[in-house]
Amino acid sequence: MSSENRVLSIEKSPLEGSAEAKHRRGVFVRTHPLIPSLSHQNQRDMDGELENHLLPVPSNSGRGDRLRIIQLSDQECVNGFSNHDDFRSKLSVRSEHTPKSPLKRGLLITIAVLIVIFTGAFTNTLHAQGFESSPNQENTPLSLPLLGETSQYPQLEEYLQIAIEQNPELQSLQFLFEAERERANEFGVMPDPELNINYDFNPMMSESRLGRFSVSAMQMFPWFGTLGSKKEAQQFSAEAQRSMIDSRQLEILRDIQITWFDIAEVEEQIRIADETFKLVGDLEQLVEIRYETASTGQADILRIQMEKQRIQNRIENLEDKLWPLRAKFNELLNRETGEEVISAEPQQQAELPYSAEEIAQLAKNQNPVFETLSLQESALQQQERTAELSGRPSFGIGLEVMGRDFGPMSMFPDSKESFIGMATIRLPIYRSRTKSQKQQISSRLQAVEMERVQAENRISSDLESTQETLRSSNRSIELLDNELIPRARQVLDILSEEYTSGNARFDELLQIQRELLDLEFERVEAVVNQNKAMARIERLVGGLRNEFRD
Predict the structure, then answer these.
(1) Cβ–Cβ contacts within 10 Å for residue 59, how many?
(2) What string of H, E and C letters represents the secondary structure of 270-327?
(3) Measured in Å, how far apart are the chain's first and last C-alpha atoms?
(4) Residue 207 confidence (pLDDT)
(5) What residues have CB less than 8 Å from 536, skipping those under 6 apart?
(6) 73, 125, 134, 330: which could form a disulfide with 335 (CB 3.0–4.6 Å)?
């Protein structure tokens, strides 16, 4: 129906200016096919607009006036229809919401992933900066004590190398050190970021449905320097563990050397006893010849046989003594207990080129025990600094993204996701824990200092005892080599000639033979004690055997 027809129909109606006509015009607008889906609020708004467009008709107006007023009102109504038609067209165009592209549908997830990636990258950057290896943290391989390039005992050096590679205790300590060093990776790392995902399944108000899905990420940061201090403290602890390994390695190598020298001593004594047994066998033939010629009695034959049995028993005892020594030695090398051990004749060592005071100073400067205590002290100092920094505030920053609900929000295409920045601060207002940690560390530092004093006293005492053994061994070797053994051999030769000529008793000959055997055993023991003392001093000063042998 055209606008002119609508005007004529209203003009001809007796109720053209009445409330009924106005009502009909309102029904016409609400039932117009161009705006079938207007909401009640829009309809109410349009009703109000129509009322405004319909001009009031004065009661004293004539028919011509009323006709002009109706025409003007109808024209404004038609214009209003056109305006609402345009508004509805816009709504219709916008309400035809095309499906979201995959990029737009995954926008919220992409933003959340970017937040996580950014936080993780920042954490990894701090992790990489905090764990660059320092020179002190390098895993230096365990090395042999400085035995010198031209050692007197090459076989012993090979055994020491085997022990370093195969000793189970050293391997266990090495694994503990690696674990302690790896434990430093736990420190200096940023706390794990927090990711929260919220969705309101049952909103109290319909308006809240527009943004009831949100994602937030939060990263906490300790006070500046806290992570680095923790890392350094653990690094010092790991280095202290490595120094303890070095100290224990020196002890094990010392035990290996001492056991090897014990084996060498027993084998050398067996060799000397075998030679003496052969000499006694030659002497037995001489006694039998003299007995056949009636130059001696049967008692001499019995004495020489008894002496042979005594020497044979001594050899067997020495051989039995080898078994536990070999078992102990092979245990230190992580080998079968019955495996053969190659030894060598113990060699006399030169005197130390240092005075007692110089050796004590070397021990204080190079003994791993003092290095361990120094590293423990450094670790405690870093822990004290960490406790101080832990008592300061920590803070965090984050980002929250409030997503779109694409159903209701399709009516508002210009609306976007909401980004909210977040920040938090933790205030350590309870100071008792920090004070307690500082007091504990202070007590431990004092304990380390007392351990250092005790270590100095113990090492000084051990050095004095070891050097006394070394000096005593040197005197014994000098006495045996220069006086006792040469004279005993001279006496044995004289008595052998006199016994052959019948001018000496046989018991005197046997007595000097026994004394010579004991003196040779004593010399072997003195040389071995000298080498053992050198090994102990080497342990106390941290492995300077090559300097002692220069």
Answers:
(1) 6
(2) HHHHHHHHHHHHHHHHHHHHHHHCCCCCHHHHHHHHHHHHHHHHHHHHHHHHHHHHHH
(3) 127
(4) 52
(5) 254, 258, 462, 466
(6) 330
Task: For residue 109, give the H/E element and its range.
Answer: helix 107-130
**What 3-state DSSP class applies to 17?**
coil
Residue 185 DSSP label: G
- Which band of pLDDT confidence, cut at 50, 70 and 90, is reported for residue 534? very high
How many CB atoms lie under 10 A from the CB of residue 443? 11
Closest by CA position to 538, among listed 265, 140, 165, 257: 257
CA distance linking residue 430 with residue 216, whole number of Å: 29
Contacts of residue 348, defined as CB under 8 A and 6 or more positions apart, other chains included, come to 477, 527, 530
- At 421 the three-state DSSP class reads strand
Residue 382 has pLDDT above 50, yes or no: yes
pLDDT at 128 over 80: no
Instruction: Give me the pLDDT at residue 42, please.
Output: 47
- Residue span(s) of the chain under CATH 1.20.1600.10 come to 140-166+228-366+429-548
Residue labelled with tokens 């007197």: 152
Model pLDDT for residues 261-276, shown as the tens digit of each residue:
999 999 999 999 999 9
Please determine, for residue 352, whether its predicted confidence score (pLDDT) is greater than 60. Answer: yes
What is the token pair recorded at 317? 């005892």
**What are the pLDDT digits (tens) for 318-337?**
999 999 999 999 999 999 98
Return the minimum-mean-pLDDT range out of 282-286, 381-385, 414-418.
414-418
Domain 140-166+228-366+429-548 has CATH 1.20.1600.10: yes
